[in-house]
Amino acid sequence: MTEEKKNSESKEDQPKVEKFAEALQHYETKLSNIREGQIIKGKIVDVTNKEIIVDIGYKSEGVIAISEFGSHPSLKIGDEIDVLLESKEDENGMVVLSKSQADQVRNWDLVTQKYKEGGIVEGKVFRKVKGGLMVDIGMEAFLPASLVSIRPTSNFDQFVGQTLKFKIVNMNRNRRNVVVSHRDYLLQEREQSREGLLKEIERGQLRKGIVKNITDFGAFIDLGGVDGLLHITDISWSRISHPSEMLSIGDEVEVMILDFSKETGKISLGLKQKTPSPWVDIDKKYSVGSRIKGRVVNITSYGAFIELEKGIEGLAHISELSWTRRINHPSELLAIGDVVECVILNIDEANQKISLGIKQTELNPWLEVKDKYEVGAKVAGRISSITNYGAFVELETGISGLVHISDMSWAKRVNHPSEILKKGQKVEVVILSIDADSKKISLGLKQLQPDPWPGIFQKYKVDLKTTGKITRITNFGLFVELEKDTEGLVHISQISPEVTVAQLTEKFKIGDKIKIEVVKVDEEEKKIALKTSKKK
């Protein structure tokens, strides 16, 4: 080949070499700009059942598992996709690429551009994990178990598949994770609803709500994110024992706004107020002195409440239940559910109170007492009860009189009525006084016999010496029986200077006969003072 020809060919190859050099320099520049963790574009060069082969223009190609492209990927050779370069070279000399991580980084950027901490985002709960739930908000976000709901719940499976709204509570840029809260979103919505509702509501306004909770004292009604209390006394004009008698959780009810506070957010509701009060013009329905039947709805220690109609109750006080029986508790005569006849004693419309009487439906036996019994008359009866101060004698059913302890014996000192009388014993007594209005009859037992004191005073004079029997020993002296039902007192000062109080029971015994002398006779007090006439 001639020199001229060689120079000609050399000139023709020079542009090719330069182009190759430029291409090589561009390639090397591109390779040097590729960084691990960077999202780059790649071209699909092959698709298999398990893998996608991607060319990113590097010295080797990358392999991505087909599972990273979703359940039904529509991929074909030549498609361009965004991938994340995890590593420039693995043990086989191939680049390591990830489609899912590229999506996560891209989604993180989109999410952080669109939302900030405290923002509201919508997402779908797609998986239950330890400690909470995973939510798709355009990227994966973690929903802790404590932030799932306002009320504690243990059934987290019910939320899987639901699309809900969340409040972003934390965004960690280094770890690219997001923590969301459905609970905070609900609380925020509730607060906004509460503020909005408090601006809208007015006293006397009717609003619909859902029964959210039932307690012994009432029911809580959800008025649309804000709860109001429907107290048990505002549910019905009639008496109810528990709100569950009329309401169930989940019921939709229309209630009236009775009162509310914008400061505390408390709302009082009423159900019965939707209908007129049955107490209006109550005096036109009922009149004092009229008889009416009612049903016993409640019994207390002081009386029985009787329902005359729905929402109208009256109280029959325990003192108005019987003319004659001594009643300790109304349950002795009445039971809840009993239908009874009663008389209206008083109507207080302002305080919504009606006083009733049951005994007034019968004739008052005390009205006939004055006609049947006379003061000074002797009557027979049976001891119905004994107290410390006397004994009650039943003269007839429901009519009893009292024999006071002071009217049991003329001369004998009685410490307790049981010394003379026994319960159930038949006795004859004298009527001393009658007070029909107060339902009291005073009776006497000693009055069956003449007063022996005039004769006693004649018989026992001062300085009289006699013999008596010791009936009682006290710390102040000895009681001595002078004759049947006649006693005198030997005061300790009248016994002997040598005898002390402690020695009384040693020196004397009940039943002993001792010689005595009358020291004083008190006709007004009907007492005889004695002294021992000589040592025992």
Mean model confidence by pLDDT: 83
- CATH class group of the largest domain: Mainly Beta
Helix content percent band: 10-25%
CATH architecture of the largest domain, by name, is Beta Barrel
Total beta-strand segments = 30
| CATH topology-level fold name of the largest domain | OB fold (Dihydrolipoamide Acetyltransferase, E2P)
From the spread of the alpha carbons, the general shape counts as elongated
Portion in strands: 35-45%
The end-to-end span amounts to 183 Å
Q: In terms of per-residue confidence, which ranges show pLDDT below 50 for 5 or more consecutive residues? A: 23-31
Q: Strand order of the main beta sheet, please?
A: 1-2-3-5-4
Number of helix segments?
7
What number of domains?
7
Indicate the structural class: alpha+beta
Q: Biggest β-sheet, characterized?
A: 5 strands, mixed, barrel
